[in-house]
Structures are given as structure tokens and as C-alpha cells.
Amino acid sequence: MTFQTWHNFNSQYVDLNSSTVNWCFELEKEHFPWPWQQSDWQNFTKNNRKYLLVSDEKRAFALWELDNHPHAYLLKIITKPDKRESGIASKLMTLSVDILRDLGFKDSSLEVQVDNKAAISFYLKHSWQQERRIKGFYANGQDAFTMVLKI
Ligand SMILES: CC(C)(COP(=O)(O)OP(=O)(O)OC[C@H]1O[C@@H](n2cnc3c(N)ncnc32)[C@H](O)[C@@H]1OP(=O)(O)O)[C@@H](O)C(=O)NCCC(=O)NCCS
To answer: Strands 51-56 and 129-134, how do they pair?
Structure first.
């Protein structure tokens, strides 16, 4: 595993490598239920919003939104199917939380589809707590659970 981290939370950030953006787009397009469009990926570092991206080259990434300090929001986390259940996303989660803590974040939230058993188990394993159910949250009418994490 070779992990990379990138964020634009403060002025010390460098531009995000375009090949990283491209493989995140490809991985998500193939294997994530609600992928961003290519234009979303191409523009996401140019829209004045703040993000943290932690990735394992071509295998997995976690993308966090940092606009509401000290609250972070987990936008997406994904591992390539043939690499799952070998601890990659766990490493991404641990690394992400370490970085968020260093940046002064205190808590985080996410939504997850209620039938996404793998993801819910994953989050519970990493100390996230299930909160409420939001009816019809997803475009296909599926409900979501909100989950929260103390950082
Ligand atoms: C959720 C996801 C990111 C986990 O990635 P991963 O690299 O396989 O996770 P890890 O190997 O680090 O963690 C394994 C833990 O996750 C959970 N988990 C992973 N796959 C699971 C499965 N098929 N069934 C049940 N639990 C599962 C378990 O808690 C497991 O811990 P255990 O091994 O002690 O049982 C991955 O399944 C994925 O990419 N899913 C599709 C994208 C997605 O739904 N993302 C979340 C959207 S909110």
C-alpha cells in the first residue's frame, strides 16, 4: 500500500496531481453507487471549497469536505472490489482521522445507504455511531442513515 494525502485546508497546499484525479474518477465511476461526473472531478479543486483526499494509488480513496471547521464531512470512501477486505479502507480512515485531528477538526458526519451492510459494518468498526434514518435520501428513493464520529 502506498498512501498519498492531499488537502487545500490551509495555504500550504500544492496542486493535486491530475493523474490522481483521473484514477479517482475512473474508480468511482465503475464502483461507486453515486459517482461524480468527470467535470466534477476536474473542477473540484477550483471551486473554493476545502477538501482532504487520502488515497492508495489506483486501489482506494477517501474524500472529505472541510468547509465547516471544526466539522468534517465524509463525501466518499471506496476500495477497488478485488482489493476489499484486506484493510485498505481501514488504513485510509485511520490516516484521515489523524490528519483531521491535526487540523483541529472535532467531529465528522456522513450518510450511508441503509442496505449498504459492508459500509455500515466498516463505519461501526471505526467508532462511527449510527444516528437517524432519512427517508428517500438517494436518487433511487433509498433511505440513508446518518452517522457521526468524534475526532
Ligand atoms: C466500505 C468499503 C470502503 C470497505 O473497504 P475495505 O477496504 O474492504 O475495508 P477494510 O478491509 O479496511 O475493512 C474491513 C471491515 O469493513 C467491513 N466490511 C468490509 N467488507 C464487508 C462485507 N462484504 N461484509 C460485511 N462487512 C464488511 C467489516 O467491518 C470489516 O471488518 P472485519 O474484517 O473485522 O469484519 C468497501 O466495501 C467499498 O468500497 N464499498 C463500495 C463503496 C461504498 O459503498 N462506500 C461507502 C459509501 S457511504
So the answer is: unpaired
